[in-house]
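no rush on this but wanted to send it before i forget. what follows is a protein written twice so to speak, once as letters and once as structure tokens for the fold. mainly i need to know what kind of three dimensional shape the backbone takes. thanks a lot i owe you, the record is right below.
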Amino acid sequence: MGYTTQMDAARKGIVTEELKAVAAEEKIDVERLAGLVAKGQAVIPVNKNHSCVKPCGIGSALKTKINVNLGTSRDCLDLDVEMEKVMSAVEMGAEAIMDLSSFGDTQAFRRRLTAECPAVIGTVPIYDAVVYYNKPLKAITSREWLDVFKMHAEDGVDFMTIHCGINRNTADRFRACKRHTNIVSRGGSIIFAWMMLTGNENPFFEYYDEILDICREYDVTLSLGDACRPGSIEDAGDISQIEELVTLGELTMRAWEKDVQVMIEGPGHMPLNQVKANMEIEKTICKGAPFYVLGPLVTDVAPGYDHITAAIGGAIAATYGASFLCYVTPAEHLRLPTVDDVREGIIASKIAAHAADLAKGNADAWDWDYRMSEARRNLDWEKQFELAIDGGVKARKYRGESTPEHEDTCTMCGKMCAVRNINKILRGEDVDIMD
């Protein structure tokens, strides 16, 4: 092909089919997109072994994308249910699926995803290694961690999260700087515990160059995980979080030297007044690499409603530089999400992404809102359902459950509807409120 990765191709002036597809989808000039990919400010995660993937571009200059986490657990081990969630997420417009399976035949599920799912597929090999080897954590060797990473690459995974920013140095700093909620990243906690149990360096940090060689061979995009993301408002922006981010910035430069695409994972729990600054710090330290955020969740007090707290933070984060929003469901902190939970999380995340795209001046986003407001002005209910962010499912249900006497009204205002009456006046008609 004359190139190894999408970044390598862009730097060599080769216009790949994936680059052309993303440019068309984003309505952006091919040369401009190639420049962003060459500089690392946009990524196109497409593993060479994921033959059915629909190329997707992630970067702050592009439309905001969303990721859906799912996967099996010891308590919920139904592959068919998880695939139902996958297909529902794809139908609802999720650009990426992240398989966080932590029990069962994880490889079978992963291979099914890369064989059948057109969305970008991500994984966290740290979780899978524990399942795959099925032995005490401290008995897993550095080589075994890396072998699982390569297995995921061979299976066609487009992007992988590795928690390599928490090395022996940053781990010591974490222990010295007491945190309110310690480490809440599952992958981060596993690799931290492994380092403490074995006395060894984080293998994903120690053998980072080998990781990069694997990524280059299969064109895997690295998602540099934030093991020390804040798990509470109290810990937001603390030393552990920022020091790890500095390490991730250094690792980003090393990846780019080998033409490996990189995303940076971000918080986490964070008050509203810190979100904008956090985005700007990441862009500075990591030279504009796409920022992939979980939320941020802007308060700790809403269990059962964390899809809302995350959407609030996500909209602000994406407005000021985040490229990729990891959805949060109402089940966050409580249980494995159901199909309905997944749906609620996706809708909340899509609203946040779209709100940010409006704020960034994206023409498609503005056109969508313009057409919806036009349908509302015309009291065109079917058009409103068609344009609704969920395909009109909830709006159609609500209107169907409360039928008005007159079609050009709803049961809230009836004939006092402002839109109806102004339309009538402007057409030279009588306003018949009490008739």
In short: Residues 44 and 210 are 21 Å apart (CA to CA).
